[in-house]
Design goal:
The protein is α/β, with parallel strands linked by helices. The chain has 9 helices and 10 strands. Helix 8 links the parallel strand 7 and strand 8. Helix 2 runs antiparallel to helix 3. The longest helix has 21 residues.
């Protein structure tokens, strides 16, 4: 099976006229693997809704991956030859890959989520903060945040452990930059590079750190497992320079709140804003999202501590959110992942 257009290790693209020509080819390659639908996603502050392509049936993406995971487990039990055959049949589509420290991570990227929309709105509100900056996004989803960053003039690297995710993200961001004016007076549209890597693995972290430092690292709703907390805590200071910043958006999961508490205990400086939509557009749920802007952590000392014991529970879709009138519930959802670096 042909690899999707996000499956290469690094793909860099300036956004401009040449990509208007390339876009039909990119879309054709995506649609060889997925039926797609067009979404219109209103973004506060943008002059028009964002046009986003997404898998037509997100549940089918989950089912497909669950079947691939079952084949992978059966192949492991049966022996190496069958395992290799299963990977050869399905690996290029991004369906089978190595597990991360937190286990397998299901592909919930096929649906817009409120945290990504909140970051996009923050970028649109202040495009000058990212214009010309080197920016990394950890976990890119369908690319809604990337669309805002590219149109604001960022030199963007998007990272995900799914090649399929990178393909959709790259198409959506290139189309947004090529067919729409930049966000911000005087700004030029930026560039986008895709990076296939899992930040939860040693190999993935090493690959990302090799490209540091970045002026800004963005992460929207990426913390699901307790063992992710010390890993991200140690990684972020190594990705940004002393003057760099981190924007972390989260909808109140237990793991997210524990991470924020860890950063407070370590003396990280943050400014937090709260954004509520009831509901968010594009079926992104009803949520109160907290956007934490960290600064001055690039020189922080953060050693990678031993993660807590792995949990052995069935993954839960991240579809439970916090309404503004309630205290955050005790949520613990697990995202599964193939495709490490």
């Amino acid at each position: 099976m042909e690899a999707l257009p996000g499956d290469r290790a690094v793909a860099g693209n300036p956004v401009g006229h040449m990509n208007v020509v390339a876009l039909p080819r990119l879309r054709w390659r995506i649609q060889r693997h997925h039926a797609v639908r067009e979404l219109e996603v209103p973004i506060t502050g943008a002059e028009a809704p964002y046009r986003v392509i997404a898998p037509a049936d997100p549940d089918a993406v989950l089912d497909q991956t669950a079947r691939a995971f079952a084949r992978h487990e059966a192949a492991k039990a049966a022996g190496g030859a069958q395992r290799s055959q299963a990977h050869a049949q399905h690996g290029s589509a991004g369906l089978v890959g190595a597990s991360s420290p937190g286990g397998w991570h299901m592909p919930y990227w096929a649906t817009p989520w409120a945290s990504g929309l909140a970051v996009a709105e923050a970028v649109v509100a202040e495009p000058g903060r990212v214009a010309g900056a080197r920016v990394m996004e950890l976990g890119c989803g369908l690319g809604i945040t990337a669309m805002a960053l590219v149109r604001a003039g960022a030199r963007l690297t998007v990272v995900d452990c799914w090649g399929e995710t990178l393909a959709f993200c790259r198409y959506n961001a290139l189309r947004a930059g090529a067919q729409n004016p930049p966000h911000g007076a005087g700004n030029r549209v930026g560039t986008i590079r895709t990076r296939l890597a899992d930040w939860r693995t040693d190999t993935g972290r090493d690959a990302l750190i090799a490209g540091a430092p970045y002026d800004l690292v963005v992460a929207a709703d990426v913390l699901y497992e307790p063992e992710d907390i010390p890993i991200l805590f140690a990684l972020l200071p190594r990705l940004v320079g002393p003057a760099g910043a981190v924007w972390l958006a989260e909808p109140g999961r237990t793991t997210s709140r524990k991470f924020v508490q860890e950063t407070d205990d370590a003396g990280w400086i943050r400014d937090t804003t709260t954004v509520t939509r009831d509901p968010w557009p594009a079926d992104a749920g009803r949520a109160t999202v907290r956007l934490h802007r960290y600064s001055g952590i690039g020189s922080a000392s953060a050693e990678l501590r031993s993660p807590p014991p792995l949990s052995h529970h069935h993954p839960t879709p991240p579809d439970l959110y916090v309404r503004s009138s309630q205290s955050p519930p005790d949520l613990h959802a697990s995202l599964p992942s193939p495709h490490p670096a």
